[in-house]
Structure to design on (582 residues):
């Protein structure tokens, strides 16, 4: 069976969930060969093997942390040349898309970004994309070169599928462009202890209706009662009530959880672009005419300051 | 010293309008109102700011690839304060994908002459967010992308990239390709004076032959990707909507329990 390269997103060896989802999709089109770079790369092998990686190519060098994007492109290209895969799959993070695009250009291939599903086809993998703020679904193929496809989080289930996961050192020679953009300082984002927004099964969001940074504690309390991530509309972020890293929408994160709860959010097209593919959508809004209600499975027309705390209490008492 | 800035701007269908696909599965750009992609306004803004903050002799050129109407996007950028514009227009460009777009942009940027390219973080129609990285790869210059803060000093571009896991300070020598996010600072509105001045600013039109690009390299025929099917997402089935009369939170909890979320 043909091999499929899977680019691994990990933090110091801890593999992030979207990569495991990618392995599920990769197994539909071939045998997954994982590529893990940077600090802790070799520590990813056990988890990757459990989820279907037949091989794990690893390489660590200071360049991956010290310079932007290009060292990773050089390494992925080296992996591509050593494996000659049938496809290359990369998680759809901002950086993942940039790496994938530059690789595609170098190897004379096309690129498809932000796939939400992937199937094997007679003429190569077929990617499903959700476009125009999720109002259309398209099916596309790369028709020249080796398909390079980036896949959004929550596009497939994580499945156990034990495989060899043999670790092999990848030989990488950095190009003269690798050191072009220097990372002169890095401030790690503080962990909130809540699930990662793009990976969470449940997302609870607040918008302008939350009316102040201090009131976001109501949204957080609901999120914590459900083990959910917290999101925010751009209006709430622009007002300085919640960090931009939590913004959901076209210029924030795109989420596709099992459950999305929108509180005090009107449902503008740019917000919908980031949450419309959620499985179940719930909204609390005091305006019965708010466009968000067009999307919901269940909506409460009411004041979030009454409804949300009552909901949180009820969930807590039901969970005991 | 002089500093030549090229800002790439895309003309896109209005997101609040009825966006759809044409029969050949490309975006219908004829029957929908278009505009300068809002996310490229941030690129124009930062280019103008860099120009204002510089002691050098700065020239800001805005560049678009698109149909005849894409001139509207150039006009808007000129009225915000850019100095001149280049419009790449050719019937053979219809249906060009990201790889092809980056080829045309890179050739046009080289022809225009550049020290700094400033792009938006993503278009509001294709939303791929890859074109700046592709253009940097093609031009063989540093990529300093997704900046929420940017400045240029002594031939060096610096900026802050707020990523998923960390916020990074980046630095590269010019020439370079930069992209800026919607966190980089509100874009200015064109003033009346700006709008009047824009009418006199030069807009050059180039076609593929001006850029030494063969028709087969771009357009639907040259594309590296193919859209095989397009389907409108079925409307979500109407949900249950209740009015809170004191029990709204409890009713919602009941719904969540029925769906096994609690
Ligand atoms: C290029 C571009 C990109 C954008 N990207 C994004 C993006 O990524 N994400 C995003 O969210 N937006 C984005 N926007 C902005 C978007 O257009 C909207 O302005 C924004 O989503 C509005 O946020 P909101 O729903 O919180 O605020 P509003 O639209 O002001 O809605 C607030 C809602 O809260 C309700 N409300 C008020 N008080 C209460 C209460 N006490 N109880 C219950 N309900 C209450 C109101 O009825 C109203 O419906 C973008 C815009 C542009 C042009
Ligand atoms: C819904 C949809 C999905 C698509 N999916 C794919 C796909 O998977 N693969 C693929 O190869 N193509 C795809 N395309 C085609 C692709 O969008 C276009 O080729 C486009 O010109 C480049 O991608 P983008 O608009 O997403 O650019 P982005 O990478 O999002 O744009 C970033 C920046 O590049 C600059 N820029 C982009 N296009 C232009 C332009 N025409 N003129 C001037 N500056 C520009 C702007 O500064 C912009 O802010 C898709 C198009 C649509 C509408």
């Amino acid at each position: 069976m043909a091999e499929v390269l899977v680019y691994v997103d990990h933090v110091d060896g801890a593999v992030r969930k979207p990569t495991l989802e990618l392995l599920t999709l990769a197994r539909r089109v071939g045998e997954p060969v994982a590529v893990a770079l940077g600090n802790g790369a070799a520590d990813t092998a056990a988890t990757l093997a459990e989820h279907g990686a037949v091989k794990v190519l690893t390489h660590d060098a200071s360049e991956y942390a010290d310079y932007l994007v290009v060292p990773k492109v050089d390494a992925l290209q080296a992996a591509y040349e050593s494996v000659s895969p049938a496809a290359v799959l990369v998680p759809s993070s901002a950086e993942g898309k940039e790496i994938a695009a530059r690789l595609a250009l170098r190897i004379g291939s096309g690129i498809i970004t932000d796939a939400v599903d992937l199937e094997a086809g007679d003429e190569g993998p077929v990617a499903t994309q959700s476009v125009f703020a999720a109002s259309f679904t398209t099916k596309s193929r790369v028709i020249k070169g080796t398909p390079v496809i980036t896949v959004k989080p929550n596009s497939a289930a994580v499945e156990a599928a034990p495989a060899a996961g043999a670790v092999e050192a990848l030989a990488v020679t950095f190009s003269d462009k690798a050191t072009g953009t220097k990372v002169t300082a890095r401030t790690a984002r503080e962990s909130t202890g809540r699930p990662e927004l793009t990976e969470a099964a449940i997302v609870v969001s607040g918008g302008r209706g939350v009316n102040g940074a201090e009131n976001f504690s109501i949204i957080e309390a609901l999120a914590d009662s459900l083990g959910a991530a917290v999101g925010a509309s751009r209006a709430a972020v622009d007002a300085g009530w919640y960090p931009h890293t939590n913004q959901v929408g076209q210029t924030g994160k795109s989420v596709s959880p099992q459950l999305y709860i929108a509180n005090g959010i009107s449902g503008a097209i740019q917000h919908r672009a980031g949450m419309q593919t959620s499985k179940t959508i719930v909204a609390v809004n005091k305006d019965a005419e708010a466009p968000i209600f067009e999307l919901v499975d269940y909506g409460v027309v009411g004041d979030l300051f009454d409804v949300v705390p009552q909901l949180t209490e009820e969930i807590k008492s039901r969970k005991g | 010293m002089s500093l030549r800035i090229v800002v790439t701007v895309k003309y896109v269908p209005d997101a609040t309008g009825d966006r759809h696909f044409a029969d050949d599965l490309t975006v219908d750009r004829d029957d929908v109102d278009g505009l300068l992609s809002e996310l490229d306004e941030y690129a124009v803004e930062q280019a103008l700011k860099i120009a204002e903050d510089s002691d050098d002799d700065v020239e800001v050129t805005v560049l678009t690839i698109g149909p005849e109407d894409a001139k509207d996007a150039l006009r808007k950028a000129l009225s915000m304060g850019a100095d001149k514009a280049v419009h790449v227009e050719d019937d053979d460009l219809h249906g060009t994908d990201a790889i092809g777009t980056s080829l045309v942009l890179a050739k046009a940027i080289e022809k225009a002459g550049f020290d700094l390219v400033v792009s938006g973080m993503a278009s509001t129609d294709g939303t791929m967010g890859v074109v700046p990285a592709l253009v940097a790869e093609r031009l063989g210059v540093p990529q300093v992308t997704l900046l929420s803060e940017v400045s240029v000093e002594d031939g060096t571009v610096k900026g802050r990239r707020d990523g998923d896991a960390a916020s990074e300070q980046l630095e590269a020598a010019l020439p370079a390709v930069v992209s800026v996010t919607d966190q980089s600072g509100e874009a200015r509105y064109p003033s009346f004076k700006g709008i009047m001045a824009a009418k006199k600013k030069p807009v050059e039109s180039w076609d593929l032959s001006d850029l030494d690009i063969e028709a087969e390299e771009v357009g639907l025929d040259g594309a590296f990707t193919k859209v095989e099917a397009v389907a409108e997402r079925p409307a979500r089935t109407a949900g249950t909507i209740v009015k809170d009369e004191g029990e709204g939170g409890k009713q919602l909890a009941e719904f969540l329990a029925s769906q096994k979320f609690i």
